[in-house]
Specification:
Radius of gyration: 26 Å
Largest sheet: 5 strands, mixed
Strand order of the largest sheet: 10-9-8-11-12
Distance between the termini: 29 Å
CATH class of the largest domain: Alpha Beta
CATH superfamily of the largest domain: Gcn5-related N-acetyltransferase (GNAT)
Oligomer: single chain
CATH topology of the largest domain: Aminopeptidase
């Protein structure tokens, strides 16, 4: 027991002690038979004591903050087969709505995305607040009719139809709302046809984040089309594939990025060889997939008006003015061999403290993870030859809270030379200037002399 706890409980006399039963670990693709099997695994825990126990076993404990519980319930149980993904999203939306309704102060205007604001909207109405509901699609009943007709035409199971409870929740939100925002005139018409007043429905078109997407010169003359989103008939992919096939362009490329709906695979098979598929990623970095594209499509909408748009990461702040012996850069595919050689040569140094990618497939996963919006992985390289000195990882980056956690490891051949200390100066500049964070944390282990 901690000293603080002993002081607070010094006058308490225990009458009985009750302990929880044995804990259960749920894992995917890994079978745990003995405590040593936990070493190097990322395990989620519900409290500090369990975190400490996992750390003693050599695992990397992860905690879910209270605001993240709804999203975790939406994603984790469906992956383990406890209930469907749709049920998970419904549960996520309901819990988020419930928690938000209890924490939002009395306000004049409440704005929410359709399907996550019914409870909050009801509570806000009691204040006399104006309620704005943001719908990302057509009216649900119109949407349902179109999807049923399209599924029948294609001869597939209508897997994209929302269940009744989910749909009814959305309809009740529309009735409560003072104003409804939709992305197009077409979507607006579907609401007007269902009896909504013209002054209640407003169009706000989708736009482009100009700091991420900007015109870029096409250097090879290939006409590229990139689609990003779930690959299913609901998105109209069948029409994109049909059009691309009929055009039969001689110097063109079609990339489909996203998870494939199992029910859509028979349709996709008809166009085998006409496209390149990239599996679903935590965050899709368009510049990693293609250097330049001629058209980007997402969720069935053409989101750019001009060709040759390129997506880039937020640039690193200037580094030359500090006149240090190192510089930071992002890892790439060409760094794999040097990176893995660093890990192999430094195993004795890392010991139980950290387990960096040690195989080619692990390095590929590291690259994918480094492109997630909540992660920033940076190589520390020596001036002037560019040799990799070590790695900094910023994890759990929260733009809302402006926080992140840092981990790092160094090449054993460069340990003790102060190069990582110089790299840390650049990392702090990137964190607080480039990413505009306010708090940067790190887990410091007393036994780790590094």
């Amino acid at each position: 027991m901690r000293r603080k706890d002993r002081d607070e409980l010094k006058d308490v006399k225990p009458l009985a002690v009750w302990a929880f039963g044995g804990g259960v670990l749920f894992t995917k693709d890994v079978v745990l038979k003995k405590p040593e099997d936990c070493k190097g695994l990322k395990l989620r825990a519900s409290n500090r004591q369990t975190n400490d126990a996992f750390a003693m076993l050599g695992a990397q404990p992860l905690s879910i903050p209270p605001p993240g519980v709804p999203e975790a319930l939406a994603k984790v149980p469906p992956k383990l087969g406890f209930y469907s993904m749709e049920r998970g999203y419904y549960l996520n939306n309901y819990l988020f709505d419930y928690l938000a309704s209890r924490s939002i102060p009395e306000s004049n205007v409440i704005h929410f995305v359709n399907s996550i604001g019914l409870i909050t909207a009801r509570r806000s109405k009691r204040w006399g607040a104006k309620v704005i509901c943001d719908s990302r699609q057509e009216h649900p009943l119109f949407h349902e009719d179109v999807l049923k007709d399209e599924a029948a035409r294609l001869g597939v199971v209508a897997t994209c139809i929302q269940n009744l409870s989910y749909r009814d929740k959305m309809l009740r939100e529309f009735e409560l709302a003072d104003h409804i925002v939709v992305p197009s005139e077409h979507a607006k018409r579907t609401f007007l046809e269902r009896g909504f007043h013209l002054d209640k429905v407003h169009v706000l078109n989708y736009g482009v984040e100009s700091d991420l997407f900007y015109p870029n010169r096409n250097t090879d003359g290939v006409f590229r089309v990139l689609y990003v989103g779930q690959i299913t008939y609901r998105k109209g992919i069948q029409y994109l594939l049909e059009a691309f096939t009929k055009l039969n362009l001689s110097n063109a490329e079609l990339k489909l990025v996203g998870a494939i709906d199992p029910g859509f695979r028979p349709i996709l098979a008809r166009y085998e060889g006409r496209f390149t598929h990239v599996p679903q990623l935590a965050r899709v970095d368009l510049h990693w997939l293609v250097d330049v594209v001629s058209a980007i499509l997402r969720i069935g909408w053409i989101v750019i008006g001009q060709t040759n748009i390129k997506c880039v990461d937020r640039p690193l702040p200037p580094q030359n003015d500090l006149e240090l012996g190192v510089f930071l850069r992002r890892p790439g595919e060409d760094d794999r061999d040097e990176f893995l050689a660093m890990v192999q040569a430094s195993r004795h140094l890392y010991a139980q403290w950290i387990h960096p990618p040690a195989r080619a497939r692990d390095y590929e996963a590291f690259l994918v993870r480094s492109r997630h919006r909540a992660v920033a992985s940076l190589l520390v390289c020596r001036q002037p030859d560019g040799l990799i000195v070590g790695v900094f990882n910023l994890n759990e980056i929260s733009p809302r809270l402006r926080t992140a956690f840092c981990s790092y490891y160094v090449h054993a051949g460069f340990a003790g030379q102060g190069l990582m200390t110089e790299g840390l100066q650049l990392l702090l500049r990137h964190a607080f200037v480039g990413l505009q964070l306010q708090v940067l944390g790190a887990s410091i282990q007393p036994g780790n002399l590094a």
